[in-house]
């Protein structure tokens, strides 16, 4: 995902947490309602987003601002998640 796409996802996430920031609704009711909906997530298509995830985004936004809502790459990208490098070397030998 390029930087423009990441920014679009961050803005989408902000659109979900914004009502929590401005106290438009009761937090619990809002999170339950949003968790039941199917959302059109930029570059990912239609997805359900758990209430807990929206709550985590809200907390990240309060700590880090919009930068906290930008998707991060996996720290283990390109590495096997099932076997260690030593095990992999042993198998390949």
UniProtKB/TrEMBL annotation:
The name under which this protein is listed is Helix-turn-helix domain-containing protein
Residue ranges annotated as compositionally biased, kind Basic and acidic residues, are 73-93
Specify where the region named Disordered lies, as residue ranges.
69-93
């Amino acid at each position: 995902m390029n930087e423009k796409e990441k920014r679009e996802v961050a803005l989408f996430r902000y659109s979900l947490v914004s009502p929590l920031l401005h106290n438009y609704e009761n937090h619990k009711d809002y999170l339950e309602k949003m968790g039941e909906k199917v959302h059109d997530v930029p570059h990912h298509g239609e997805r359900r987003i758990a209430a807990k995830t929206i709550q985590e985004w809200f907390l990240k936004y309060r700590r880090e601002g919009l930068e906290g809502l930008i998707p991060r790459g996996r720290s283990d990208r390109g590495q096997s998640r099932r076997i260690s490098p030593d095990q992999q070397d042993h198998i390949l030998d």
